[in-house]
Design goal:
mainly alpha; 9 helices; about 85% helix; single chain
Amino acid sequence: MVEIVKSGGWLMVPIIICAITAMGIMLERFWTLQQKRVIPEDLTSKVWGWVKKEQLDQKQIQSLHQGSPLGQILAAGLINRDRERAIMKDSIEDTGRHVVHELETYLETLGTVAAVSPLLGLLGTVIGMVKVFAAITTHGVGDPTVLAGGIAEALITTAAGLSVAIPALIGYRYYRNRVDTLVVDMEKEAIKLVEALHRRQLKEKG
């Protein structure tokens, strides 16, 4: 393995860095974007239970905010639960934008790795072929071993670049879609809470 890396030349270094970066991001996002971590089961129902029983206080709202991304959104609505429905929704939407940004953390970097890795491989191909033609100019085509180094460098860097880019691109697309799905689910939960709070306000006024 070490010999293959050496044969690929100095461009193998940034390709390996890209591979480590992509792997680290995909593992971190796999842990962070789990359904149970982002949208804890029955959280909205539990919160509504607190509201109905008048058990909600500032400490619980703070704990809810720190517990999960969905908790942050629901906490934003609960802080304004005694105000107009439009104000509640605006507060939830503002917090939602920050939460989405947090869920998308590192995904742009992963997308960049997916785009850059094959270009590094292509650059390695070009450098390898330049070495081949330089060897042909100097030594002719009589000795294949003279050409082997440049050809090996060209093929190895291309293969390495694609080997990093393909899983990185798959990971990028997967986690983008994952975030979109989680955002839709959080919106549904937030709307349920807003509507329930709004009905409660109308009932109290009536």
